[in-house]
Each structure stands twice: as C-alpha cells, then as structure tokens.
Design brief:
The chain is α/β, with parallel strands linked by helices. The chain has 3 domains: about 1-80 and about 645-675, no CATH class; about 80-315, 3-Layer(aba) Sandwich (Rossmann fold), CATH 3.40.50; about 320-590, 3-Layer(aba) Sandwich (Rossmann fold). It contains 28 helices and 16 strands. It has a 7-stranded parallel β-sheet, with helices on both faces. Strands 10-11-9-12-13-8-14 form a 7-stranded parallel β-sheet, with helices on both faces. It has a two-stranded parallel ribbon with strand order 15-16. The longest helix has 29 residues, at about 1-30.
Length: about 675
C-alpha cells in the first residue's frame, strides 16, 4: 500500500510540476531582478515547484491546502531567498548572516540550502531527503541557531559565553561518524563566531574526561555528537551535562546511523530528553535515502501533525555513480595492486602538469579492512610517490588511530591541493573532501551500496572525477554479481596490472613500478603483512569467490610479491574456529614476528616518506592485530538487500504516505552487470 501511495503521489507531483513551472517562470519574469538573477538557468527555476510539491502534495487534504498557500510560500517569494543576504527578510539574526557572507564568503545558497532553510525557519519538524556534499550542514545549522537566539536573545551577544553552562544544552546534532561530527563542529563554530553560542563536540575515540572538563569549563549551547558518546554522557549524572530545555534536535545521515545499528541508541537518547508536551522541541531529520526503517524512526520522533517533508534530490539529476567514468582494472594477482596504483598515480600527475584543465592528483584509496589500510599506507609512503621532496603528501584514516589523529589527517587532506588518503570505510560516507580527482577501490567492495558511497567522494558538486576498481582476475565474476547495473568499464591500459611477476620482461616503466614496491616491502615490518593475510581471509566471500581462491591469491602475493619463503601461519585454534584448518595452502602453526611498539603504523601530513610518524601522536593503538583476533571481518553486512525491500506495513499510515521517496525506483539493483 505504501508503494501504491508513493506512485500516486509521484503522478500527482509530475502533473503539478508541469502546471507550476509555467506559473513560476511567469512570476519570475514579471519581477524586476538584477542582472545576475536574470541569468539563472531554466533548470534552477524549476527547483521551486519541486520544493512546493515535496512540502504540499502528499494527500488530497494537503493538496487542497496548497491551493490556499499564502504569498510567503509563493514561487516568487522562494526565489528571493536563494542568497544568504536575503535571510534578513526571514528574520535571521544579522550576526549569523555576517558570519556566512563576510567570514565564510558565501553568497548564493546551494539547492539544498534554499529548499530546507525556509521551511525549517518556520519551526515545524522537518524530514529532508538530501545528499551529502551539497551544503546541507548550513541548511540545518542556520535555522537551529536562529531558533535558539529567537527564544533567548541574550545568546546573540558574545558576552553570553561567560554564562554558558553544560547543564543547559539548547540544541544537539547527531552524526553517525566521528569524522562527520568534527566536520559539522568546525562549520558550526564558524557560524557562531559573532554570537554568544558555544559549540562543543563529543565523539567516541576521545578521552571522555577531558571532553567533559572542557564542556564544564566553557559551557555548551550546541552539542555535536555521535550516538554512543552522547548516550554515555546524558545517561551519566556525574558528567554535569544535561539538556532540560532542549529546543532543537538534528539527525544527520539518519539512514547511515541505522545502517550501523544506532536505532536503539537514538531512541534511548530521545527518552532522556524532556517530553515534547513539557518542552517544545523541533526535530530536523536529514537522510540521503528514505527506506522503511528511516520512515519508522521519523514517525517515532517528529510531530506527525506538524511536520514537512522536503525532497531536495532532483529526480532528473544523474547521480555521481552514474555520471563519472569508472574503470575496472583486472590484475593478475594481489601482488599487482600497488604497482597498478603507482601507475595510475603517475599518469594522473603527468596529466595534471600537461593539461591545465585537469584537476591536481588527489586520490582516496579504499580498502575494506584496517589491516590492509595500515600496510598500504606504509608501503606507498616508502615509494617515490611518498617522497618528501618530489612526491605527494600521504595520509591515512582507519579505526585504530585515535580520534585526534583521524581528525588531523582528515583536515590536512581536506586542505591539501594534491595527495593520497589511504582509508577504510570510515570516510566512505558523509565526509566532504573537496576536489578529489580519483577514488581507487582495491579489492572487492563488501556490497554495491558501499561501492557507490566510496565513488561518491569524487565528482562532487558537479566537478570532474573518476573511479577505479582494481580486482584480481579471480574476483571479477563475483564483482559482476555484487555490483550489478553500474557503469564500470574494463580498462586494459594499466600495464602493471596485466604483468605476471616473474614471467617475461616488462617495459622499463612497469619494471620500475614493481621495483619501487619491492623496495618498499623491505622497509615494512613483517607483522603488518601477516595482519593483512589474516584479515583478508575473513573478508566477505560469495558463490563465485571462496576462501580457497583467496588463499591462493594471498600465498602467491606473499611468495612472489614479497619474496617470503613461507606464508604467515594461522594458529590451529583460530583455523579450526574459522573453518580454515582443511583449506589447501593454509599453514598451521605459530609465528613470532617482531611487533612495533610505537605508532608507526599510521601517520599523515609531514611524513611523506620514512617510517610514517604522522603528527607525532602517542597513539599506541595502531597495531595490526596479529593473529590474536579473528581477522577483522572487513566485509560488513550486505546492505544492498535493502534496495529490494518492500514496506508491507505501510498500509493506511498517513505519515508513511507523506514521507515518500524514489528510493526503490532509483536504487533497485538491475539484474545484469555492465562489466
């Protein structure tokens, strides 16, 4: 029933859009506008009725209400609020506008901002479908800040900072990852610069006691947090942190939070807030997709009799993963991975020097487990690509670095004009790194959804970019099943991938790439590769790729690529527990590799070559895990199954009918692959 309701509203919306676009164009042309406004493309004008449809046309009753819309919701009025300086007409405090226009130097709003700020300023709850990297952070921060200042004008004065208290938090923004929370915090502090609002962050991976002391000392009006740490803080009376008069609650990347299992934590957090009947609270929920679980979460949180749904994703817009070129590189084996990366980087760097229109080489290398990220980071830093003088800066982000190190590395890569970020999937979603020219995925992605999110780190905001997927030949058949319907095209131009190591004579250039990698292997401790070996045996397999295939690939990499006489051992107990004890090629036994005692597994800006000391942090948790763990599954759940889900419980629920999206129609996995 929910599906039929969505289809009915889609037909109604398409009809209304055709009728309204003529009206909008007439109203816009009839108004005196400045020259820059007259040059707006027709596509930008048509965004106006898209918003009105999203806000109004969800039932016959709301369609009737739309007919009686007042002038403040007219297309002409919305057209006048596409520049930040015009927020003054909507009552936004001049200090907020000054921070945006003078300090941040923003003039025109993005599409997402123009479609969400206006309804959120009205005070109603909001459910918005919005992609990452489109400026939605300001889309929710501006109305949140204005709501707080309108309720308590003293917050607008910088003098309020002396009186701020951690026991009186007015607004909370919830984010699924530490990196995204820190990113939002940076933006929020810029926006609050001329006001008295105090912004704090609370994320996992940092020392709770130090964070609490900072909040108690400086106070807190707006808290940006991750779910686990926020629940930990609010449920512990000894922290001295409370929100008895909370006025705004924002959930950013709601679908991602549900993907990683935060549903119960979010509901527990809401239970710690004062009831809506006692303290009115505005809820703003942002999500890139609106599947069934997001609908249910929203229904339990927003005021169902006083909310708006805003669709900020233009259905006619081509998504990033369908727009940018994507290349599949078939490698002879895992030993070809890193030489192929060097060749791709070498070509891109030369192209950026010779082609003034090309982006500088700025790449993210994605692996599906932390151990491989640590190993790859050390290997690449010890090649000419990581040379301090004529290479590029190399950074890494993974779960075993401290949050401070991850934040510094992310910010350094964000500022860098050129460089490489070696990363696990902690940066695959929500993180905004400008001008990323290449996304290189090495090894099988866990699922189609994750592949798409990784590719989405490049080609953002309509800019150029390209995706590369490097797979061993044995993995390609499984990739066709796992990644259907994507515009991934075979690319046979990377010679380093097709060369069989130890056979034949490659070109001098290819031979140099392999030699550079071989020398780099000699400078990397053996226990790092042992951890990679262990972790990749725990990856997600499939009908077309089993653990036996992986063992053969790993053993060949170990003996031919690294030149080891024997492969890393798996302890008999671990092998038996993981079902590896009868797999041909597995060596049962015990190894005694020397372990590094300091944080030389990570590192970032300032240590392009050498041993990777990074920011001179004291993060001693960067170890590779050895064989004491179960190998780091690295695969994640197959969230791609959500694309074919059906909500059979939507029935006659008016809320479910109103909160609609094109999630199923746009995200359904096609039956055949394109490569």
């Amino acid at each position: 029933m929910l599906k039929s309701s969505l289809q009915r509203h889609a037909r109604l919306g398409n009809l209304a859009r055709r009728q309204l676009s003529t009206l909008v164009s007439q109203q816009i042309r009839s108004r005196p506008v400045v020259a820059s406004c007259q040059r707006l493309a027709q596509r930008e004008r048509q965004l106006v009725p898209l918003k009105q449809i999203a806000l109004r046309l969800y039932s016959q009753g709301s369609a009737a209400a739309y007919a009686n819309t007042q002038t403040d919701d007219s297309p002409a009025s919305l057209y006048n609020t596409t520049r930040f300086e015009d927020l003054a007409k909507l009552g936004v405090d001049e200090r907020i506008i000054r921070a945006i226009t003078v300090d941040m130097k923003y003039d025109s709003m993005t599409e997402v901002q123009s479609l969400t700020i206006n309804p959120a300023l009205k005070g109603v709850d909001l459910v918005a479908q919005a992609k990452t990297g489109t400026g939605k952070t300001l889309g929710f921060l501006i109305p949140v800040f204005q709501r707080l200042i309108a309720a308590d004008p003293s917050l607008a004065s910088p003098q309020h900072r002396r009186d701020a208290s951690s026991k009186d938090i007015r607004a909370i923004v919830l984010s699924p990852t530490r990196e995204l929370a820190e990113q939002i915090g940076v933006e929020a502090r810029k926006l609050a610069r001329h006001t008295g609002l105090v912004v704090q962050t609370a994320v996992g991976g940092t020392r709770k006691r130090e964070a609490m002391f900072k909040m108690q000392r400086e106070g807190c009006d707006v808290l940006i947090a991750t779910p686990g740490r926020l629940h930990d803080i609010l449920s512990d009376p000894s922290t001295g942190v409370d929100a008895p008069k909370i006025q705004s609650f924002v959930l950013d990347e709601a679908d991602r939070m549900l993907d990683v299992g935060f549903a119960d934590a979010i509901r527990d957090i809401v239970d710690l807030f004062p009831p809506i009947s006692q303290v009115d609270r505005q809820t703003l929920l942002f999500s890139a997709t609106i599947p069934r679980d997001v609908v249910h979460l929203a229904k339990s949180m927003v005021k169902t009799d006083n909310f708006d749904f805003v669709q900020t994703i233009n259905p006619d817009e081509t998504p990033t993963h369908a727009r940018i070129p994507q290349h599949l590189v078939a490698a002879k084996g895992y030993e070809n991975w890193f030489p192929a990366v060097l060749e791709i980087a070498d070509r891109a760097i030369k192209n950026s020097k010779n082609n003034p229109d090309a982006l500088p080489f700025k790449a993210i290398l994605f692996f599906s487990n932390t151990a491989t990220v640590q190993f790859a980071n050390r290997v690449i830093k010890n090649t000419p690509l990581g040379n301090r003088f004529n290479g590029v800066p190399i950074f890494d982000i993974h779960s075993k670095l401290t949050q401070d190190t991850r934040t510094r590395n992310a910010e350094a890569f964000r500022r860098a004009q050129t460089g490489i970020l070696v990363s696990s999937d902690v940066t695959a979603r929500g993180m905004d790194f400008p001008n990323v020219s290449h996304v290189i995925q090495i090894g099988l992605p866990p699922d189609r959804d994750q592949y798409i999110h990784r590719v989405g780190r490049t080609g953002r905001a309509g800019k150029a970019g390209e995706g590369w997927l490097i797979l061993a030949e044995e993995e390609i058949k499984e990739a066709r099943v796992r990644l259907p319907g994507l515009p991934i095209k075979p690319n046979n131009t990377i010679q380093s991938a097709s060369h069989t190591l130890g056979q034949g004579t490659p070109s001098p250039e290819v031979a140099q790439f392999f030699e550079d990698i071989s020398k780099a292997y000699e400078r990397v401790p053996k226990d790092l590769f042992a951890s990679v070996y262990n972790a990749l045996l725990g990856q997600k397999f499939g009908r077309n790729l089993d653990v036996g295939d992986c063992v053969r690939l790993l053993n060949n990499w170990c003996k031919v690529g690294l030149g080891w006489e024997e492969t890393p051992a798996i302890t008999p107990t671990s092998a038996r527990n993981r079902g590896l004890d009868r797999i041909p090629g597995i060596r049962l036994g015990f190894d005694n590799y020397e372990r590094e005692s300091d944080d030389r597994r990570g590192g970032g800006f300032g240590s392009y070559g050498g041993r990777g000391g990074g920011f001179n942090s004291n993060d001693r948790r960067g170890g590779g895990g050895g064989f004491s763990s179960n190998g780091g599954r690295g695969g994640g759940s197959d969230s791609g199954s959500r694309f074919n889900s059906r909500d059979r419980r939507g029935g006659g629920d008016p809320f479910a009918r109103r909160v609609s999206s094109d999630y199923e129609s746009r995200g359904r996995q096609p039956s055949r692959a394109s490569f």
